[in-house]
Specification:
The structure holds two protein chains of two kinds. By secondary structure, chain A is an alpha/beta fold. Chain A contains 40 helices and 35 strands. In chain A, strand 18, helix 30 and strand 19 form a beta-alpha-beta unit. In chain A, helix 10 runs parallel beside helix 12. In chain B, helix 12 links the parallel strand 14 and strand 15. The chains are: A alpha/beta, B alpha/beta. Chains A and B meet through helix 18, helix 19 and helix 20 of A and helix 2 of B.
Chain lengths: 1029, 590
């Protein structure tokens, strides 16, 4: 075989490859990364070959198997050059279609190209796809481009040109200087400056030195090293040669884990090729530099990523670390000075030598130059490998490139650096990802694994998972790591099983910090990180597990009966009542609901139903229509006129005063009355129900239905005094004298000002005031153009009321996009059906008019950066002001509470005017005065208000000497699940609705509820995850 | 010298030493657990961590070298908290049966507890990592539950002894110390040297119990109880009974043995002298053969150390012919008790129960070797280690320190100084040469105090050359012959010498091997811990005992003379063959 002896020889080969490629009309690159191989890309390749043969295109199309392109989620992937069209999720049968259409007819097959789920369109050109557009490839420069088994292809991309250039007259110091100037830091995770490491080793006068490539990639979910080795092995070899030359080593060792057979195979081929060309061996490029590389296969122990353990393993010993110092640069492999760098670090080197330090410094941020490859994993839409400049924000990586969380779930946290790393919460989505900023957050860069977690992840469980991993991987040499990680795991296991005890968190912290402090090696010193960082950011979740035996994410299965019940703030036994409906027992279902919530009719209509977002059925097709089924049960009981007789305990002689007849106050009264308390509810309005009565439009919650439900509460002895305003009609002090305890549940009924010029003009209403006026029939008509400002349920309610009041045109002006609107999705859909226009990315800056409002001056918004749930933050776009003509404006932004009856110096309030209560007892700083619902939480949902009312009842009973056990009537036997081996996929069963034209001019209830048959069928969709064996 | 600060005090210390050593030089004892001076420094227990200003992590002081300007804090809050928590962690994986553990009050973990303010049981519902007990071997018991994985035993087995039978198996919390695949030490090629048992800080490694049996037999009226004590016991037993290392307690030991109820109190020294006669003659026989042009296997290697014997049988089976066929001294004595002495006092051999007090754990295995049985009977019935014998005396309530001295019983209690030095490395060789030289030349060994200086001490391999001049007429052929000898203790040195033999490059004629580093004075059954200092003290005591004797050469022991006259007739004769010699098994590696 011919030998490569100088730069000219390299250039000859490069020219040959280019000439050869220019003969073809198309180049078909098929991704041969391990991910695509497991999704069968080799069969697709065969199919392509067959089709090319069949159509006699062998002279026209050059087919290559390339390294990993990174878009593993959509594999197998092929890219056709020069058109740069990307085909995704290829099947064997697609090959012929593409060959025929693309290569023969010259038209690409659109519906096989990339489909953007967000934008809902095909994006065929690789350069237009967000995922690729925002990347910057240095390390992965050849992956997806060159034939990964061809040294010539590598040479054609200036491969081995860097080492040739060096051996053609650069000194060791020259090389080290470039690497130092480039600012390259170790990509294995430690971030130690590579040039400095080389310099330290170079200075050692020993005659024998070694250079080792650490390819023992062990972080769960990380596979960048594997991809580089598989896709561009020569770049690593060249990097090692350069390093070897710089430090004065003639021997290199690549330590690869045995779990990477494809990487080992391709690497071996590459080494053979390089040896045959004389690129590895003696007198390389006619210089007197000798260098060769050997592969050592490690059995895959996580600890062997630790330099000293890796060296021990290469030496044939048990892979266990020893204390540093001495560092490998002084005393490494076989006691000789040794440099160990990571695969990714080496792959950067040739590019740095060829393009210079200055070029490299253009990427990234200060002290963190260049790019970093990340492996996106977890609950993210685009899983795979991405290479971005250092300092790209976490939000950009996760949302712009990774396309956000699957199933539109909320982002919760990202774990960087694998099990040794830490988690980063939504608050830091705008943090640039680089060594230093991550460290500041208590996380680490690590090798670049980025595990994304959505709201359904329990952080205690996540910590337990990582602890289990490191505990398994601990070599066992030093005591803190061997026993300490086990004890930490045991504590975490106890907590997740509901056996957590007071003091566990502190013990975890104490142990964790000690292990970090005292363990022998990097594994132990970082092992507690996931626990410490989850405690730091999610301490509340730990406390809930320990104190309340609650796992809010619905993961720790010993702590709840089903995810839906667990998620319901009121803890309603959802699978119980759903199965009762399925069994044809809607009355029992209704009674079961009322054990936890006296408002089934209301919640069956207006609940935000967080339960449904956790419904396991949702993973299969669609969540069970839990809310609608609740309504069905309640409606059935009333329609059939089957009055319930709630058992009430004999009067106990104690009396409770409740301020506010909203859902929270009435719930509290209901449960306390059933325990035998004398209940008086003071309501300032002429109707009971609070926000349910005046804040929710009739078409969503008819008055009659609310009244009948309140009646059931009055039936157990709750006295409601209407038009009785505390502070005016009766003083608070008088109230306190009259009652043994008081529950304040006055809610937040005052609309907030938005502080925009012209806000006080006529025909500008505030959301809740407007709805109140409509409900109390103070406003019965509305003309002209109505603009509603806001994106929540109040905004939609106001807009839909405006439609019903006769407005000519109704629009909602919202500063973000429709997807970001917090309002119920069904309500938005119904509103749009009724003709409401949504003006996205717009905010008012001025209301114009004289007396009456005439115009709104708006400004366009642009979305930049991220809030803590991954939503983009709106910023005004300067100079984009425009005007909208309006006749009426409704400002539906938010509400606040006011407590005129209490002396402000007497009670502790937050700066938002809400009560401060003692978390466990709900008592305010005034003895015997309790508070709950929105007056504590700020504007929140009906169901949390109800949940607070119930919890307050328990606490008040305890305060007055009771046991705090509610009287919820007799046990209801819940049907056993039928054994259904076959689960048939089926979306929700239909419910009846009024058509837009039937509802737009009146306030009739829009939703008509379930038909009995559909209700039973819908209830049968429940997977009964409450029953586990 | 460099300057450092420990706890805000500036001090000057030599460069290159560790923080632990620097602290010790300045009268600060940093608590340690896995650390074993001169042998084991791996920094795995982390009990000795200290805070070094500017370092992110706490540093293990036993392996971190001092550097100029270093500011070290040995008792900061961080350090004390870490120390305490690590201690709690160790305890959480250690049985709490201290009161019935044989290391009670002699346990390094316990001792640590006396200085660390532990919070006690801070964990709930935790698992113990291991529980298995390996008591299959006749010599050593390994109780994994008690093992704290300090790895000292591994260092002893792998690096000090070069045997490598035990190592860490599994990883992380499931780690255990064990032979490969967790087989028993009895099935692995363990030499039973017991060096591992001498360094174990807790009760995880110990000798197999023989005390129970011995106590039992002492109450058996039918048995005539014989006890013999090895040369090395007299210089070490004291440590078990409250004396400083190197105290000779020979006379009190004999008295104590009688108080315990033994009928005959003999001295293995007697048979050490006998060994010299038999082994010396065997050597001369081999030399003679070579001089006469006949085939004989040289160098000849001593055979008193059963750990060493098992080592060569496993690892160099092809070289077992180099071993002297002599049994070890206590086996010879046992065999003579049940023949010569039995005849003499008219007791049936089977009515004897011979107990050997030995510095050795391998001796417990040795007495089970069937090839050494005579007429179906073992030579010795039970072996007690020095530690066990000490415990026995303590249990019996004997006020050892106030005992009168007494002598061993006749006739098997009479010995010369040559026998005493069997206890230490170089001793057997010196004793042999004292006799052989005189046999050949008719003159006493011409050295000061009869010591051959070059083979005294703790160097791994020691050699000597001795030119034979003016020999007696019957040894004419040896005139001018230079006898080359080598002495080693510890199995690494033994392996080195055997490799030389294997390669045909051994220049020696006679080699002394003792299995334990330093010889029997630091045997596997000796009081813990055998530090270099203790070793030295014991050796000095042994030489003192030798030098204090009137008779210092085996061949002038009058009791030996009578033995040959009355019973054996001649060295290497028929009876010698039956009672005093044995053969070896080519075991190979298991």
């Amino acid at each position: 075989m011919r030998q490569i002896k100088n730069i000219k020889d390299l250039e000859t080969i490069k020219k040959e490859v280019e000439q050869n490629e220019s003969k073809y009309k198309y180049i078909l690159n098929i991704c041969g990364g391990a991910g695509c191989i497991s999704s069968n890309c080799l069969k697709v390749k065969d199919a392509f070959e067959k089709a090319i043969e069949k159509y006699n295109l062998k002279d026209k199309v050059l087919l290559k198997i390339t390294g990993c392109i990174g878009s593993c989620a959509i594999g197998p992937v092929a890219i056709i050059y020069p058109d740069r069209i990307l085909y995704q999720k290829l099947q064997e049968e697609d090959a012929e279609k593409i060959v025929f259409s693309h290569f023969i007819n010259g038209t690409f097959v659109r519906d096989l190209t990339y489909y953007d789920n967000h934008k809902k369109e095909y994006i065929s050109k690789i350069d237009d796809i967000d995922y690729f557009k925002k990347q910057n490839k240095i390390v992965l420069r050849n992956c997806g481009i060159t034939d990964c088994l061809s040294i010539e292809d590598y040479i054609a991309k200036n491969g081995y040109m860097a080492i040739a250039k060096i051996l053609n007259g650069m000194s060791q110091e020259d090389v080290i200087k470039i690497v130092k100037d480039s600012g390259l830091r170790g990509r294995g995770g430690g971030g130690f400056p590579t040039g400095l490491k080389w310099e330290l080793c170079k200075k050692n006068s020993a005659t024998q030195k070694y250079i080792i490539c650490n390819a023992d990639e062990g972080d769960p979910g990380a596979f960048m090293d594997r991809s580089v080795l598989e896709g561009d092995p020569h770049s690593v070899l060249e990097g090692m040669m350069i390093g070897g030359y710089a430090i004065g080593a003639t021997k290199g060792v690549i330590y690869v884990r045995a779990e990477y057979p494809l990487a080992i195979e391709r690497l071996s081929i590459a080494i053979d090729q390089a040896r045959k060309y004389g690129i590895l061996g003696k007198n390389i490029f006619s210089s007197n530099f000798d260098f060769d590389v050997e592969i050592r296969i490690g059995a895959g122990a996580f600890v062997c990523g630790e330099e000293t353990a890796l060296i021990a393993s290469v030496e044939g010993k048990r892979g266990e670390p020893t204390q540093k110092p001495p560092f490998p640069a002084e005393k490494g492999l076989f006691g000789k000075p040794t440099v160990i760098n990571n695969v990714e670090t080496f792959a950067n080197i040739p590019a740095i030598i060829l393009n210079g330090a200055e070029w490299f410094n253009k990427f990234g941020v200060k002290n963190n130059s260049g790019t970093k490859v990340f492996a996106l994993a977890g609950d993210i839409n685009n899983t795979g490998l991405v290479e971005v400049p250092m300092g790209t924000t976490l939000g950009e990586i996760i949302f712009d490139i990774g396309a956000g969380m699957k199933r539109n779930k909320k982002f919760k946290a990202a774990q960087t650096g694998g099990p040794s790393g830490g988690c980063i919460t939504g608050d830091y989505l705008n943090t640039p990802v680089d060594y230093d900023s991550l460290k500041e957050l208590g996380a680490i860069m690590g090798s670049g694994g980025l595990i994304c977690m959505d709201e359904d992840k329990c952080m205690v469980d996540v910590a337990r998972f990582f602890m289990e991993f490191v505990q398994e991987e601990s070599c066992g040499k030093c005591f803190p790591c061997r026993v300490g990680t086990k004890r930490m795991l045991e504590i975490l296991e106890r907590i997740t099983k509901g056996k957590g005890e007071e003091g566990d968190i502190e013990l975890l912290e104490n142990l964790g910090n000690m292990i970090k402090d005292a363990a022998l090696c990097g594994l132990g010193q970082t092992a507690p990180n996931p626990v410490l960082s989850t405690i730091k950011y999610f301490r509340e979740e730990y406390e809930e597990h320990i104190k309340n035996k609650k796992c809010r994410a619905g993961i720790c299965s010993d702590l709840f009966i089903s995810p839906c019940q667990n998620t319901c703030p009121a803890g309603i036994n959802v699978p119980g009542y759903v199965s009762l409906i399925a069994a044809g027992r809607p009355e029992d279902a209704y009674d079961l609901i009322r054990k936890d919530n006296p408002f089934p009719s209301v919640c069956g209509r207006v609940c935000t139903h967080p339960c449904e977002s956790k419904c396991r059925r949702g993973m299969l097709d669609e969540p069970v229509a839990i809310m609608d089924l609740k309504r069905y049960a309640a409606d059935y009981v009333f329609k059939e006129n089957k009055p319930r007789k709630d058992i009430v305990f004999p009067k106990n002689g104690k009396s409770i005063g409740i301020i506010g007849a909203g859902p929270s106050g009435l719930t509290c009264g209901y449960y306390l009355a059933r325990l035998g308390y004398d209940i008086t509810v003071y309501e300032s309005q002429p109707v009971a129900g609070g926000v349910l009565a005046f804040g929710i439009p009739e078409y969503r919650l008819p008055k009659a239905i609310l009244e009948r439900e309140i009646k059931t509460i009055e039936n157990v002895g709750v006295k409601i005094l209407l038009n009785k305003e505390v502070g005016k009609d009766i003083s608070f002090d008088e109230l306190r004298k009259k009652h043994d305890a008081i529950y304040v549940a006055t809610g937040t009924q005052f609309s907030k000002k938005i502080n925009v010029e012209g806000e006080d003009l006529e025909n500008i209403y505030h959301g809740l005031d407007f709805l109140k006026a409509v409900n109390f029939k103070k406003i019965t008509k509305m003309d002209g153009i109505v603009a509603v400002i806001g994106g929540g349920n109040t905004a939609i309610d106001a807009a839909r009321c405006a439609v019903r009041l006769g407005a000519k045109e109704v629009m909602i002006i919202y500063r973000r996009t429709i997807e970001d609107m917090p309002a119920d999705k069904r309500e938005i859909r119904d509103g749009i059906e009724e003709g409401i226009k949504i003006v996205e990315l717009t905010a008012p800056v001025r209301f114009i008019g004289d007396k009456k409002v005439k115009e709104i001056e708006c400004i366009k918004m642009e979305l930049k950066g991220f809030d803590n749930q991954g939503r983009k933050k709106p910023y005004t776009l300067k100079g984009s002001e425009f005007k909208i003509k309006v006749d009426n404006v409704i400002l539906a932004v938010s509400q606040y509470s006011d407590l005129p009856f209490i002396r402000k110096d007497e009670v502790q309030l937050t700066e938002w005017g809400t009560f401060i209560i003692e978390k466990d007892t709900m008592m305010t700083n005034i003895k015997g005065v309790f508070a709950g619902g929105d007056v504590v939480r700020g504007s929140d949902t009906v169901i949390t208000a109800i949940a607070d009312g119930k919890k307050a009842a328990i606490n008040i009973d305890k305060f007055l000497g009771g046991k705090g056990i509610l009287n919820t009537g007799e046990e209801i036997e819940i049907p056993k699940p039928t054994i259904d081996t076959e689960i048939v996929e089926h979306e929700r069963f239909a419910m009846n609705y009024l058509k837009p034209e039937e509802r737009m001019s009146n306030f009739k209830e829009v939703s008509l509820g379930f038909h009995k048959l559909n209700a039973i069928a819908e209830a049968m969709r429940c997977l009964r995850c409450d029953k586990r064996d | 010298m460099i300057e450092i600060q420990i706890n805000n005090k500036s001090i000057k210390v030599p460069e290159g030493i560790t923080i632990l050593e620097a602290a010790k030089l300045n009268n600060i004892k940093i608590p340690t657990l896995c650390y074993l001076e001169n042998f084991h420094k791996v920094g795995s227990c982390r009990i000795c961590v200290v805070e070094v200003e500017g370092q992110r992590n706490l540093m293990a002081s036993c392996i971190t070298k001092v550097a100029n300007g270093m500011k070290i804090f040995t008792n900061s809050k961080r350090v004390r908290n870490a120390r305490k928590l690590i201690y709690d962690l160790i305890l959480s994986d250690h049985p709490k049966d201290c009161l019935n553990c044989e290391r009670n009050q002699n346990c390094e973990l316990q001792e640590l507890g006396s200085i660390i303010e532990s919070d006690g049981e801070i964990f709930k519902e935790y698992a113990m990592s291991k529980s298995s007990i390996d008591n299959e071997s006749p010599s050593i018991v390994r109780d994994n539950a008690k093992c704290i994985l300090c790895r000292r035993c591994i260092t002893m087995c792998n690096e000090v002894q070069g045997v490598g039978v035990i190592d860490i198996q599994n990883r992380g919390f499931k780690s255990i110390v064990s032979p490969y695949f967790n087989v028993s030490m009895n099935s692995a090629s363990c030499t039973f040297c017991g060096q591992c048992t001498t360094v174990c800080p807790v009760g995880a490694l110990k000798e197999k119990d023989s005390l129970t049996l011995v106590w039992e037999m002492l109450t058996n009226k039918k048995k005539r109880m014989v006890i013999q004590t090895a040369p090395a016991i007299r210089a070490a037993l004291g440590e078990e009974l409250g004396y400083p290392p190197g105290t000779l307690i020979t006379g009190k030991m004999a008295t104590a043995a009688r108080l315990l109820g033994f009928d005959d109190v003999f001295d293995t020294n007697f048979s050490a002298d006998l060994t010299i006669i038999e082994e010396g003659n065997e050597f001369l026989k081999r030399v003679k053969k070579v001089i006469n042009g006949e085939k004989a296997v040289l160098p000849m290697i001593t055979s008193c150390s059963p750990g060493w014997i098992k080592f060569i049988e496993h690892y160099y089976p092809e070289l077992v012919d180099h071993l002297s066929t002599c049994k070890s001294p206590h086996m010879m004595l046992g065999a003579l008790v049940k023949s010569y002495y039995a005849e003499k006092i008219g007791v049936k051999p089977e009515d004897f129960f011979v107990v050997s007090v030995m510095p050795c754990t391998a001796k417990k295995f040795e007495i089970t070797r069937e090839e050494m049985f005579i007429d179906g009977m073992p030579n010795v019935d039970a072996v007690l280690t020095t530690r066990e014998f000490g415990k026995m005396i303590r249990e019996a309530g004997i006020d050892f320190k106030n005992l009168e001295d007494s002598k061993f019983d006749d006739p098997l209690g009479i010995s010369t100084g040559a026998a005493d030095i069997f206890a230490t490395t170089g001793g057997v060789m010196e004793a042999a040469i004292r006799t052989v030289y005189e046999i050949i030349t008719g003159r006493e060994l011409p050295f000061e105090n009869l010591h051959i200086k070059s083979i005294v001490g703790f160097d791994r391999i020691k050699t000597a050359e001795l030119k034979l001049e003016n020999v007696l007429p019957e040894w004419k052929k040896l005139e001018g012959f230079v006898v080359k000898v080598a002495v080693t203790s510890g199995l690494v040195g033994a392996a080195t010498l055997l490799e030389e033999i294997k390669a045909g490059k051994s220049p020696y004629h006679f080699i002394e091997v003792m299995g334990c580093p330093g010889g029997c004075i630091s045997g596997g059954g000796q009081p813990r811990m055998t530090t270099d200092e203790v070793r030295k003290k014991r050796m000095e005591a042994i030489y003192k005992e030798d030098e204090g004797k009137e008779l210092r050469k085996s061949h002038i022991n009058p009791a030996i003379k009578s033995l040959y006259d009355e019973f054996l007739k001649e060295p290497l004769g028929e009876k010698s063959h039956k009672y005093l010699h044995t053969h070896y098994i080519k075991r190979g590696k298991q």
